[in-house]
Design a protein that fits this description.
The structure holds 2 protein chains of 2 kinds.
Chain A: E1 14-20, H1 24-31, H2 44-49, H3 59-74, E2 79-87, E3 97-109, E4 112-123, E5 126-136
Antiparallel strand pairs in A: 1-3, 2-5, 3-4, 4-5
Chain B: H1 11-14, E1 24-27, H2 30-40, E2 53-54, E3 76-86, E4 90-91, E5 95-109, E6 115-126, E7 132-143
Antiparallel strand pairs in B: 1-5, 2-4, 3-7, 5-6, 6-7
The chains are: A alpha+beta, B mainly beta.
């Protein structure tokens, strides 16, 4: 994991795309098998009744992946401060999701160096989740 | 269900807006953090066993979360928006107080269901000193699955 510094990041910088394949087992294990979750996360028919077309990928799983994605991009001395996501289309289990993103702003906020990224999950090349993420990076100064 | 002639949001539903829940104690457990890290494939050494720090996304599985006490207007629901804020890292084993409230509830016309209801609810987590640690906010789009447009399945 490489450390990024505020001074080295530029608006427009792109993050390396990363593919993940969410499964129904992941959806259940993520929340714990003893914890109640939406039946549509593991039951294809329940997902179809919601109009999803298969088992539904939990939004919380996708947002957690995006948190990890940005955290890994930023490095161990950084801290994710805020994520705001819009789930534009439901995702179906066992179909690949690609995470991608780019830097849209950098600023000093309350004396803290903040970088803002827009990140997405792409399903078949189309965004299914769009998120704005603010991460505090260390400064070389 | 066709589009109703008037809002299905009642005064009883609206009465939830702005009303804070009683605090609920939640504990950040090592096994939960480990399980979630394993599912995500997260090998970040900051959150490894023994560090005493949990990854931020453990908020996804914390009890007392934003859906607690959410008014149910329509039978189906999909998470459509979400926000997490972190004031500081989560510590393994610490007890937090979760306080939730509904921020907004409104009708929506159009879209794949014709009529739906958007409910926005949030939870703030405070530590033993009463200091803010994190917050989680969600918007659920509630709908009647039977009203979905043909071709959207």
């Amino acid at each position: 994991m490489t450390q990024r510094y505020y001074e080295d990041v530029n608006i427009g910088d792109e993050t390396e795309p990363l593919e993940r394949v969410p499964t129904t087992d992941m959806a259940i294990d993520f929340f714990g098998r003893d914890n109640p979750t939406n039946p549509a996360f593991s039951d294809i028919e329940a997902g179809k009744r919601l109009g999803v077309g298969g088992a539904l990928v939990p939004g919380l799983l996708k947002l957690s992946w995006l948190t990890q994605y940005v955290s890994d991009w930023a490095g161990p001395g950084a801290a994710v401060r805020n994520l705001r996501a819009a789930y534009r289309r439901p995702d179906v289990a066992d179909r690949p999701l690609v995470m991608a993103g780019h830097v849209v702003d950098k600023r000093i906020e309350d004396d803290k160096p903040i970088v803002e990224l827009e990140v997405v999950t792409l399903a078949d090349g189309q965004p299914s989740t769009r998120a704005s993420v603010q991460v505090q990076l260390p400064s070389r100064g | 269900m066709s589009v109703p002639e008037q809002s299905l949001i009642t005064d009883e539903h609206r009465a939830h807006v702005g009303r804070k829940s009683d605090p609920l104690t939640v504990v950040i457990k090592e096994e939960d953090a480990r399980r979630m890290r394993d599912v995500l494939g997260d090998t970040d050494p900051r959150y490894a066993d023994g560090t005493g720090i949990a990854p931020p996304y453990v908020v996804a599985g914390m009890g007392g979360g934003p859906r607690r006490g959410m008014p149910q207007v329509l039978p189906g629901g999909l998470l459509t928006q979400q926000e997490w804020k972190f004031t500081r890292p989560f510590k393994i084993g610490e007890e937090l107080q979760a306080v939730s409230q509904v921020y907004d509830i409104r009708d929506r016309l159009g879209g794949r269901y014709g009529y739906s209801v958007l409910v926005t609810q949030g939870t703030d987590y405070y530590d033993a000193k009463g200091e803010h640690v994190a917050s989680a906010m969600i918007t659920i789009t509630q709908f009647d699955p039977k009203s979905q447009r043909k071709g959207d399945e």
